[in-house]
Amino acid sequence: MQYSTNITKTGIVRSDIFSDNFKTDYISVDFIMPLDKNTATEIALLSTVLKRGNKKFGHMDKIESYLEQNYGAALNISTSKAGELQLLSFSVRFLSDKYAIDNEPTAQNLTDLLYAVIFEPIADNGAFDTAFVSQEKQNLKDKISALINDKRVYSLEKCKQAMFENENYGVYEYGNIDRLDSITPVSLYEFYNKLLSSAAVFISYAGVKRDTDTLLKPITDALGNTERKLPVTAVNNSVAQVKNITEDMNVAQSKLNLGFRLGDTAQKDLFAAKMFNVIFGSSPTSKLFMNVREKLSLCYYCSSACDCLKNVMFVYSGVETENTDKALKEILNQLECMKNGEFTQEEFDNARAYLIDSYIQAEDSLAAMSSMHTAACLAGHKLTPRQQIDRINSVTFDRVIAVAKDIKLDTVYILKGVGGKKNAD
Amino acid sequence: MLTKYNKITGETCLRTVHPSGLTIDIVKKPGKSRKTAMLAAKFGSINREFEYNGKFITVPNGTAHFLEHKLFEGKNGNAFDFYAKTGAKANAYTSNDKTAYYFICTDKFEENLSILLSFVSNPYLTDENVEKEKGIIGQEIKMYDDEPSWQGYFGLIGNLYGTHPVKYDIAGSVEDIAPITVDTLMSCYNTFYHPSNMVLSVVGDVDENKVISLCDKYFSKSSVNEINQKIDREPQGVIRPYSEKIMPVSRPIFYIGIKDNDTELSGDLLAKKETETEMLMEILFGPSTPFYKELYDKGLINSEFDTEYEMSDTFAFCLLAGESDKPHDVLDRVKLEISKFLKDGVSNQRFIQARNTLYGELIGSCDNVAQISSMLIASEFSNREPFDRAQILANITADDILARAEKLFLPLDISISVIKGE
Fold first, then answer.
1. Residue A195, H or E segment
2. Do the beta carbons of residue B402 and residue B345 sit within 8 Å?
3. Residue A9 neighbours by CB under 8 Å, 6+ apart
4. pLDDT tier for residue A422 given thresholds of 50, 70 and 90
5. Crossing angle (nearest 10°) for helices B267-285 and B398-409
6. Model confidence, pTM
7. B327 and B218 inside one domain
8. How many Cβ atoms from other residues are within 10 Å of residue B181's Cβ?
9. Is residue B248 part of a domain?
10. B129 interfacial to chain A (CB closer than 8 Å)
11. Whole domain around residue B96: which residue ranges?
12. What is the 3-state secondary structure (H, E, C) of chain B?
């Protein structure tokens, strides 16, 4: 495994991960903008409009045919958030040249496609295709509305919106329906050009060793000479008053979501915060799993997850409506235990083994390695997985306790099931 | 140990049947950091009726899944507690026709394999821990009750199947699992968790001799256990062409199913059928087809639309799922596409594209130790050669696809299940 990261003079982060262990290769290009309610909808819309067609390869069906000819290569365009950043990510995964039956140059073929998708969309006179835009607006509207279909994701999102009412972190990465109406083929095209010229850009290659500078040169060249800088995430570690919100819905199971501010210590000690999260709630031997699920038998899932860029943590669980308070109390009780240092050397060692294993496992997947590397660049430390393991190994008991002591509950959001009696007798 | 080298994928499978009856498949992947093992029993939600202690019994729906939960618990603690010391990621799942337990690790492979073999071969069931699990599984069931995709999917299966036990929900209902006891679980364990009804697959940079000696430790020499069970055959035809359910969803979601009545196959023939059907679905409904373009452009489907072929040795069906305000228009277009295909056949270009896609997926899947491991289990349970798809794809012809289409679509047993908002 060979990692290298260079920053071009315009600020583009260019990374290569070379490995002989794969039969596929992977290229990704991420455009990174501040997460903002005035642009989130546009970025989400671009992720699907750009998939509709480009001048070189034609419409979506032609692009799909091209992917199929190239041994079922995958083209992905997606949007996601990390802290208060929004990413528009383009990636291709394809069979390495040497496995192509007729020796097709798959890497070149897929790089050509990636270039066309990003830089040569179907557009005329400063506007995207009207039919594409209006249909993708409808699709995005459906997608935003469909959030409610998955109650677990829906209730967590509602928890975030309540907790970050006045912070950009509360912006949903697929935007909002009201904003969609004001977007036109012209305004979207203007935004697209702004994104191309001003967003921070990460370009990564993972796969067999090759001359990636030559392969990816057209993409870096097309990004021009403007200076690019990574936007920052505003961290707020204080809680004035805990927010309690309950929403009723006709569902069989209630969903409990808790939002926490991780505090100053976690912000300065990222790797201790990661250790805290595993001991507390993100592994199947965590305090939450062992107590809320195994000991009290209150739920099927109860876990924690952190966004270290925003320095926050969420805990979520699906419980019987009448057990909501009991589960809530137990979750907070387990946090109290963490603050009091009531975890064993064994729990600590297990968490370390769990995290180290996760880093090493990533080395078996090009996409996982690539996204882990992107996360390291976003976090600013740019450490390779092996270097991060060294940091994990140096975390002490006391540092984890110090992180725990600083954590504050901010928001409790309950989706309360008021239906579901129909089956019981 | 039998060595099977597959030239096209470049992978080698080492296969042996242990004196206990356990089939062991090992694919060595030097240089990979991940190592995985999966131990599976050919016992899923469809295996409900069987002979035990001289008489035929029927266990409640959800029993196989319940047993999966319980096998994680040992006398000295939960399997997760042991894996936690090594950092391995472990889990298990129950499907219609199998229960599989696995871990993926980067370190201490033999220790992890011992944990896996030990907890699956030593059930620790008490009245108390069986009762406790009902609370946890009850919440899992309720989670599924609220999941529109799961409800839509099982709605479709209920439309397609009236006799075959695939029609029963894998987890059962809260009422189904209430009467489950230690005895219920042990009757299944003693019948279906015999090594001769199980397969162990191992993939990664491992020493095969150490794998075998660990199996020696946990599985003793034994004779094949003949399982006498009843799985009702499914007649042709659908139970109902349409069903709907009201749930809190923003937009209707649909599951269209086409029942495959050609189910009495195993081995090479089954493998060939699977590849042909997957190619056929790609040729008819894949993202590069005129069908897809037309429906997408008209807003009848969105990018959520997907197709799948679900197959076991006693049942099989094609699935087309998505979101649409007009699910019946999608259904009509699906039917039209099928009749056009039966008349016009397939162009050479589309045939090659579909074949290349499946070929690329196959080779690409060899990068993933977990995918190889699951594939090995599925192959063994249906008496297929590992990586057999590579050879099938090399030999397949357009005529094969057309012949498969005629078997699958004549008569056309099709149904749709819709989940709608209030």
1. helix A185-198
2. yes
3. none
4. very low
5. 90
6. 0.91
7. no
8. 13
9. yes
10. no
11. 2-230
12. CEEEEECCCCEEEEEEECCCCCEEEEEECCCCCCEEEEEEECCCCCCCEEEECCEEEECCCCHHHHHHHHHCEECCEEHHHHHHHHCCEEEEEECCCCEEEEEEECCCHHHHHHHHHHHHHCCCCCHHHHHHHHHHHHHHHHHHHCCHHHHHHHHHHHHHCCCCHHHCCCCCCHHHHCCCCHHHHHHHHHHHCCHHHEEEEEEECCCHHHHHHHHHHHCCCCCCCCCCEECCCCCCCCCCCEEEEECCCCCCEEEEEEECCCCCCCHHHHHHHHHHHHHHHHHHHCCCCHHHHHHHHCCCCCCCCEEEEEECCCCEEEEEEEECCCHHHHHHHHHHHHHHHHHHCCCHHHHHHHHHHHHHHHHHHCCCHHHHHHHHHHHHHCCCCCCHHHHHHHHCCHHHHHHHHHHHHCCCCEEEEEEECC
Q: How confident is the model at residue B1 (pLDDT cuts 50, 70, 90)?
A: confident
pLDDT of residue A423: 37
Q: Which two tokens stand for residue A307?
A: 């966004």
- Give the distance from residue A57's alpha carbon to the nearest chain B alpha carbon, in angstroms: 13
Q: Is the pLDDT of residue A421 over 80?
A: no
Question: For B315, phi and psi rounded to 5 degrees?
Answer: -150, 160
The partner residue sitting opposite B140, judged by closest CB among A300, A353, A360, is: A300
Is there a contact between B323 and B253 (Cβ–Cβ < 8 Å)? yes
Taking only residues 135 to 194 of chain B, the set having a beta carbon closer than 8 angstroms to any beta carbon of chain A reads 135-140, 142-143, 145-149, 173-175
- Proportion of chain A in helix, strand, coil states, percent, rounded to 5: 50, 25, 30
B391 close to B10: Cβ distance less than 8 angstroms: no
Catalytic positions of B are 68
pLDDT tens column, B52-90: 999 999 999 999 999 999 999 888 888 988 999 999 999
Averaged confidence pLDDT in chain A: 94
Structural domain contains residue B237 = no
CB contact under 8 A, A366 and B367: yes
Please name which of A106, A139, A156, A123 lies closest in space to residue A54, comparing C-alpha atoms: A123
Same-domain status, B54 and B128: yes
Same domain, B108 and B158: yes
Confidence of residue A425 (pLDDT cuts 50, 70, 90): very low
Q: Which helix (DSSP H) or strand (DSSP E) does residue A81 occupy?
A: strand A74-82
Overall fold of domain A243-423 = Cytochrome Bc1 Complex; Chain A, domain 1 (3.30.830)
Residue A138's closest CA among B267, B123, B297?
Answer: B297
* ipTM value greater than 0.85: yes
CB B222 within 8 A of CB B196: yes
Q: What count of other Cβ atoms lies within 10 Å of the Cβ of residue A36?
A: 14
- Which residue type is seen at B191? T
What letter represents residue B14's amino acid? L
- Select the residue from B33, B86, B298, B365 to test the A interface by mutation, using most A Cβ atoms within 10 A: B33
CATH architecture of the region A2-222? 2-Layer Sandwich (3.30)
Residues B214 and B354 in one domain: no
Determine whether A339 is exposed, middle or buried from the number of CB atoms within 10 Å of its CB (0-12, 13-18, 19+): middle
CA–centroid distance for B337 within its chain: 28
- Contact of A87 with A233, CB cutoff 8 Å: no
> For chain B, how many structural domains are there in total?
2
**Model pLDDT, residue A419:** 67
Q: How confident is the model at residue A333 (pLDDT cuts 50, 70, 90)?
A: very high
The predicted-structure confidence for A245-286, as pLDDT tens digits, reads as follows 999 999 989 999 999 999 999 999 999 999 999 999 999 889
| Whole-number Å distance between alpha carbons of B225 and B194 | 7
